[in-house]
Amino acid sequence: MSPGGAGCTNGLLLTVGWLLLAGLQSACGMNVTAAQDPGLAREGEGEGEGENEGEEETESESEAENEAQPVPEEDVSNTTIVKEVEFGMCTVTCGVGIREVILTNGCPGGESKCIVRVEECRGPVDCGWGRPVSESLESVRLACIHTSPVNRFKYMWKLLRPDQQPIILANDSAILEVHREVHPLVFECITLDNNEIIASIKFTVYTTSELQMKRSNRPDTDAVLVFVLTIGVIICIFVIFILIFIIINWGAVKSFWGEKASTTEIQSELSSTRYKDSTSLDQSPTEIPGNEDDALSEWNE
């Protein structure tokens, strides 16, 4: 072989060797990539799952937040009924009493008003001068300002004296019985609730002679009032019976009043005719002298 042919064969061999090496490298690279792909795929899947889990967590958190949000106030106000309350009048003008708490909106059964409860109310402390519960010529019974239960309060009785300190009595009950003395006495009762003065009232206990004098000077209005009331009741009963009788016998009453009306008309007609006759009789004598004068005048001629 010639040197030129040997060089060509060597070049071809080198070229084939390079091609084989390139093919082997490419095959090894493909295997390596194939070996590495599962890991990469797993990593990709892990990343995808992490992203999906993150999205699911955010969605669950948003749902929890939506569930945790309170109901708007407008919905609550629409579902609830506003209750309006007003207070009744106190049973007393001073001291301690009770009053009613009335509900004007939201009553059961569609009622316009309903009583919810009864509570305590208080007025001014000073109740001024009071009247005895009962009295006679020998003794008087006085009562303090209180409500039930009576044992809830404490009572302090005082005997008031002019220009002197009052005397505190030993009686601590709500009722005090006093015997009349030769001179008038003034008592005061103070009602305490938890050491707080809630009412005070005063009484004057007159002597027996003063009481008798007042009773004698007092007009006997009770007897007059009873008499007037009795007469009024009797008159009312009489009028009621008359109305009932007229209603029951309305036909007879109507005919009776018709007959009476006809008789009155006849009497009025008779009276009118009599009046006319009397006037005609009164006028006839005045006409006769005129006729006589005419006759005399003709005779003279």
Can you describe what's shown?
- The protein is of the alpha+beta class.
- 54% of the residues lie in helices and 21% in strands.
- It is built from five helices and eleven strands.
- The strands form three sheets. The chain has a five-stranded mixed β-sheet, with no helix packed on it. Strands 1-2-3 form a three-stranded antiparallel β-sheet, with no helix packed on it. Strands 5-6-9 form a three-stranded antiparallel β-sheet, with no helix packed on it.
- The longest helix is centred in the N-terminal third of the chain and has 66 residues, at 3-68.
- The radius of gyration is 62 Å and the shape is flat.
- Residues 1-6, 30-51 and 64-79 have low confidence and may be disordered.
Question: Roughly how much helix do the residues carry, as a percent range?
Answer: 40-55%
Q: How much of the residues is beta strand, in percent?
A: 15-25%
Over the alpha carbons, how many angstroms does the gyration radius reach?
Answer: 62 Å
Compute the number of strand runs. Answer: 11
Summarize model confidence as the mean pLDDT: 74
Number of helices: 5
| Poorly predicted regions | 1-6, 30-51, 64-79
Task: Give the SSE order as H and E letters.
Answer: HHEEEEEEEEEEEHHH
With strands numbered from the N-terminus, the spatial order across the biggest sheet is 4-11-10-7-8
Biggest sheet layout: 5 strands, mixed
From the helix content, strand content and strand pairing, which structural class follows? alpha+beta
User: How is the quaternary structure best described?
Assistant: single chain
